[in-house]
Amino acid sequence: MSQTQYPTLTEDHSAILILDQTRLPREAVMLRLATLEDAAHAIRVMQVRGAPLIGATAAYGVALGLADDASDARLQHVIDTLAATRPTAINLHWALERMRRVLQESALATRRDVAWTEARAIATADKAANAAIGRHGLELLQTMWQGERPINVMTHCNAGRLATVEHGTALAPVYAAHTAGLPVHVWVSETRPRGQGLLTAWELREAGVPHTLLADNAAGLLMMQGRVDLVIVGADRIAANGDTANKVGTYLKALAARAHGVPFYVAAPLSTIDFACPSGDAIPIEERAADELGAGDTPVANPAFDVTPATLISGIVSERGIAQASELGQWKP
Fold this sequence. Notes:
The protein is α/β, with parallel strands linked by helices and 333 residues long.
């Protein structure tokens, strides 16, 4: 298997192909999405996951949904259908609003073609943004490296290339460091209950990056023992004040990092910053199905995300550089 052999999303004539992430790491299978319903289902059941990739897939979902009817009524139905799939990842709603704005300004006769062109532009922009995150993050890793041993990066969930169209967010600096010859090792949190850490391990293995999988609750111990130089995580939504929603368990890592003096960074493209959301209190938290925990008839709480307060975040890495949470206003469009 190779990363180039299995892209996360690619066009296939009047459809798209995605890497079905519900079948990783057991097997790598490309799945064809040809309809609005295909795209909505893929997002809902996490065949595609990761905020940037969800946004790009939703954009293509709009194009798929307008195949036979490009009317205003159909456009509204398509956007409503896709918007209902996942509540927390702002990239989904950002991409749909961008598609709506562009398509409402286009003539009906050209709307289908415009939809494909705009979806393609969103995917291309994601690649460029993540590559830039990698460059800025590499500079951070270079300044932290002491030269005595590999720099040890801890991450949570999967914010690598599998969560994006290309490069990744939290892992983009890791890949950039590996390419540049900077020795790096990644502590990979398994991320219960969906096991996204296994996806991180899969892609790091494919890229030849040294890594170690750990149980989620071992993270604090490793930080206490001085075996973690910094934590870098992705984000599903960043509020205007810097509060950040990410996969549940991120908050606990941020608390442990603060307790042990370990820098804690968030890496995400600007499309993940919700300037209309004042703070983390206003971020909707998705509650996943109880059967994901396999608890039978036992009552279950299964929040998919938690919110890390901006006060625990050392910096936010975007395609524009690295900023403190209090400085996000400089990036407001």
